[in-house]
Amino acid sequence: MRVDLRRTCTTVLAATLLVGGGGCVSNSYRIPSGDLQRLSQSPPEQRAQRVRVIQEINESSAPPAERVDGDTQIVIMPSIHISTPVRLGSGGGRGGGVSGGKIGGAGNDGKAAAVVFLVVAATALVMVAAVEGSRFDGWARLHPMHPVHLFGRDGTYQVRPLAWIDPATAAWTDKAIVRPAEGPWLSLDRAPLTRTGWGYGMFGGSGSLRSVNGEKELGPAFSVQAGYHPTKEFGVLANVFFGWRDNVVGETLFESRYTLELQAMPVVAGPFHMGLYGGAGIAYRYEDGTKLRNTNDPGSSALTGGAMVQLELHTRIALTGRFGLARAHGERMSDILVGLSVY
Asked: For a Cys-Cys bond, which of 66, 75, 159, 243 suits 221, CB 3.0-4.6 Å?
């Protein structure tokens, strides 16, 4: 029996988000500026067939517009309706950075503090994924006379039917909002994975750590990262890594790394995306129960790098696998991690 991996993962993700609590988004949708300008250059009676829309997190401050229906006559001659300036509230989410620093002063203390950090990070991931997973980002079919709320670069506001927006108006517009309640609306298909903007991810798996006695074994490993993608292929992220295991005397060996990471994901094959990452920063290691060497000065520079593969589950959510190497404390370590990336 053939199994659709992406559909299975998406179903599991949806169930997880429902358990964690559904996201809360608005009933306002933004038409990106570039798409609005392209629409303004197409025939007025045809431009509503496929409109790119992105659901906002916060409700727009635009006042309600009169609803149109499927029988509304398409009028090409424009007539501008201008209102008084409207103060626009914030309409998007904001990602947060991850700060570095030492966690704990010994192996067991560091592990305990890391577990608390990871629980908080996982809770945040569920909340962010719930919000982004509930947003629609794709294309919709509207009526050519569907009201479009236009917020100008000069602080003024007006509402026009989609068919009446000319290139000059599109260039003047800072933000364009449409609402499903104000006319016929048919959601068509979602956009492919989009990384542009803030991103957040958490991954878990296994990593190798070498004890002071020379033994190298695997243990639990986790990574949390947040940052910004100026393009959908390239990103800059702050990354926090934790790994630990028991050493030969049953005590805790704890590793933490704090790096600035560059990601490049240029390869796309259907729902799969592939690329590389590299980072640099600092690492700390604490090992309890040994006096083979001075473990009170555990700091080291750190270099990281590896390959990434993503399976897109949603326009803003991807299942991510990381296969990495790290150089710190004069040795090489490796890890394999799997988790979610939210954009």
From this structure: 243
